[in-house]
Amino acid sequence: MNKDLESIVLTKEQIKEKVTAAAKWLDGKYGSCENPPLFISVLKGSVMFFCDLVREMQTPVQIDFMTVSSYGSNSESSGMPKIVMDLAAPVKDRDVVLVEDIVDSGYTLQRMRDLISGRGAKSFTVVALFDKPARRKVDIKADYNCFEIEDEFIVGYGLDYAQQYRNLPYVGILKREIYEKK
Ligand code: PRP
After folding, report:
1. Which pLDDT tens digit goes with each residue over 73-99?
2. Other Cβ atoms closer than 10 A to 169
3. Domain total of the chain
4. How far is the CA of 134 from the CAs of 7, 13, 21, 56, 70, in angstroms?
5. Is 104's C-beta closer than 6 angstroms to any atom of ligand 1?
6. Which of 108, 129, 140 most suits a substitution to test ligand 1, by most atoms within 8 Å of the C-beta?
7. One of 52, 101, 104, 131 is an active-site residue; which one?
8. Cα within 13 Å of Cα(70), Cβ side
9. Inter-residue contact 174 to 116 (CB < 8 Å)
10. CA-closest candidate to residue 2, choices 177, 170, 117
11. Which domain, by its residues, includes 46?
12. Domain of 146: which CATH number?
């Protein structure tokens, strides 16, 4: 285990099991669609989940990426998610599936929903790895959540603290002294 972690909350195997279940749910929803849905990874946090998820699916999909940032190196959302890199593909008349690592305050999801709906998507579905309802500031939620978690500072499998720990293959709770020392 990484030395900055207090404990591991989800192992690689536990994550894989939930990712497989999410992929099955998506296959059920989009398997008989005429046109492939457009899967959007909200970077950078969702990258690991996104890649594993689409590779578990049987349904043909198209993929695109958007970089959105609201935390920087802070532990509180700025409340104004910034679009750092926009999509390459138009979403008009597309079935869009947004893939998030975590829905926390809900500001990022709200911003993405407004943006994508405003661009004329045919449908908008959200799949999130984690839901942290205790921190919600906006009344919004994903259509599918893999895990609901307590208000703990978790990192790994894409989730960071000050851009670190994203490449851990498991998810763990960060030691308080790490984020309180600044
Ligand atoms: C994180 C995370 C989500 C968002 C969720 O992104 O990846 O996109 O915050 O928080 P919210 O519900 O409070 O908006 P961040 O802005 O930290 O950028 P990152 O994905 O590059 O880590």
Report:
1. 677 777 889 999 999 989 999 999 999
2. 11
3. 1
4. 21, 26, 24, 30, 18
5. yes
6. 108
7. 104
8. 18
9. no
10. 170
11. 5-29+37-179
12. 3.40.50.2020
- For residue 147, what are its two tokens? 């895990």
The residue type found at 166 is R
> Is 4 annotated in the active site?
no
Would you say how long the chain is, in residues?
182
Residue 49 has pLDDT above 90, yes or no: yes
What tens digit of pLDDT does each residue of 129-182 get?
999 999 999 999 999 999 999 999 999 999 999 999 999 999 999 999 998 875
Asked if 128 contacts 50 with a C-beta cutoff of 8 angstroms, the reply is no
Peptide bond into 12 cis (omega under 30): no
Q: What is the identity of the amino acid at 5?
A: L
User: Taking the model in full, what pTM does it have?
Assistant: 0.95
Token output for 5: 């972690």
Whole-angstrom Cα distance, residue 62 to residue 70?
A: 26
Contacts of 26 (CB under 8 A, 6+ apart): 53, 57, 59, 97, 127, 144
180 token code pair: 């309180």
For the chain, the first-to-last Cα distance in angstroms comes to: 23
Tokens representing 13? 């195997």
